[in-house]
Design brief:
The protein has 739 residues and is mainly β. The protein is 3% helix and 54% strand. The strands form seven sheets. The protein has a 22-stranded antiparallel barrel. Strand 15 and strand 16 form a beta hairpin. The longest helix has 8 residues.
Length: 739
Amino acid sequence: MYPTTPISGSGIDPDKVAATVNVIDANQIKQTGSLNVTDALQQYVPGIIINEVAGNPFQPDVQFRGFVASPVAGTPQGLAVYQNGVRINEAFGDMVHWDLIPTAAIRSVTVVTNNPAFGLNALGGAVNMQMKNGFNYQGAEIDMMGGSFGRIQSSAQWGKQVDNFSVYGALEGLHDGGFRNFSAADVRRFYGDVGFKNDVSEFHVNMGVADNNFGAAATVPVELLQQYWGATYTTPQTSRNRVGYVNLTGKVEATPTWTIEGSARVRVFEQKTQDGNPTGTQPCAANSALLCFGDDVTPANGLNGAQLANPFPSNAVLGENDRTTTRSTTTGVSLQATNSDQLFGHNNQFVVGASFDSSVSRFSASAELGTIGTNYVVSGSGIFLGQSGDPVSIGPVALRTTNRYTGLYALDTFDVTNAFSITAGGRFNHARITLEDQIGTALNGNHTFERFNPIVGGTYKITPGLTAYAGYSEANRAPTPLELGCSDPAHPCIIAAFLISDPPLKQVLSRTVEAGLRGTKDLNIGTLGWKVGAFRSKNTDDILAIPSQLQGFGYFQNVGSTRRQGIEAEVTLKSSTVNLYASYSLVDARFLNALQVGSNSPFADGDGNVQILPGNRIPAIPRNRIKAGIDYSVTDAFKVGGDALFVGSQYFAGDESNQAQRLASYAVFNLHASYQINKTFQIYGRVDNIFDNRYATYGTFFDTSDVPNFANDGAQFTDPRSVSPARPRAFYAGLRATF
């Protein structure tokens, strides 16, 4: 059964889904040998790629059809992510912290497209994860693995059913030293579930906690990478993510044809970040004993509002440590009813539901001045910036936000004939976002967004092994508190840190149409599966993060209409000895309106702007993605396999005018093998990036004059490109015990 809403009980036959179907199971996740579910998404779902814009493999951007779910504040989010029916896009910026998801406990992942029932942010689709419990997982497993760059990880899970009751638990731990300076990662996660069911009902309480620490090295100038692949630019760049949640779910078969499901949840999230950066602070021209900000005449003020004295040596390179703290508490409830009564003598499934979520977030930020050493480490001075700049663009922030999201939805799938089914329905979203400045009144605001998003589609089974589908849907995304607090070009702010009073943003509206064919056929060598489809999504009032002339500063802006369109094709072959897959996807993402925006591109004009023309490609979205993989059973106990990924070239972030050289395409190849020693023990190993290719997954620009090139005797940088380097060749080996 394929999900049509976040609540799992409303699934339908995949042949009746009027959109592409993407499913990953627990075995495929295990095959990757990774405690990061995004690795499985990239390997097995056509069109999905990940990049390490944050500089850490456990904090990736996940991109699907040109839409992103990212842990990086300031990234416009276009995918909704659910865990056991609970939306886990965090409240303050809709970010998705993939590191908090208990990967070993995942039973299945579906990537749902063309369906507004998944609520806000589902512009490009939704990633829907269902978790294990003691009814669907019995036994125990311990998995330990280690390898390159100090990687050591382990996981343990156990599930048991006793009569009508069940219990399940999963524990995960990981340490990775990272291949780049200051990029270590520590992950600690727990997930548990207690359940009860009888002939007509099922109830679960599941809970989870995580406490993770990361050194996020971010992008680095290409001139430094040419000398050392593990180089970093300004640092420290660290984050600590913590979460705790409890969910109560229930399902009751009220009658043979009516099923009632519901959930209640609470989620507490906390993030603390430290980010070493260049600074706009500098000695004043008229009096070098004082500090100025943004230029050499505007005072840099302290927390008391007085201009700061300059305590730094004349040859010091100034920087700043920007710190943020975000705390969010989210509570919510959902209720859904599903009916399977026939309609006019034809099979029919009707689903109606509602959800309500309320989140309270507290956000604070500060900037500590310091000096940048020859290793690019920013050493703090204990001197903190107050409100500074003309216009004011930096200073301490204390903000309380409240998000209230309400959704009402209905879907109906009607079998016109045994071969032809149609689906229709929609969802009404209402979002109210309140901002309360805890220092003054500049950030105060009250914003309301609402919209009804329809869906209509159909499937036709041409033969028992061949189905055609087509569908149309709409979705919307409300601006986040983060975006609403930083949207004025005249008042840029450090993205995700120093918010200021801003004009309102419009909500983003996406209209999507897709169609395709899918089928299966039994062959002598196994079961052949295939699918091919095309999609087109047009966004109205799309939101982008726009950089300003002052390095590290920017703002959010509605940029008119954009379009993402393309094709996806996949073929699989499954047999007792061979599993084979190959896929290709094309994503053509373009601006549709002429627009002038701020940019740190080397082709920006004297005012720091570039001109977007209709038809310009949207940066950081590669057009071509090719994937392939094979697993072969040499014997019943010994298995070998490999996989490959090719990603085409892309424009650098900030190059909306498409004038600069593109980030190069790349290909990476991996190998893996396993040997089942006996019924209990299995050893396995893998080699990632076997040809040790040196490539980057993301690129942007930086101000070459901000900090000297200490690796070149302090000369000025000459190349404005800054990229996220990928991990070199790595070796891993592990032992798995199953009881």
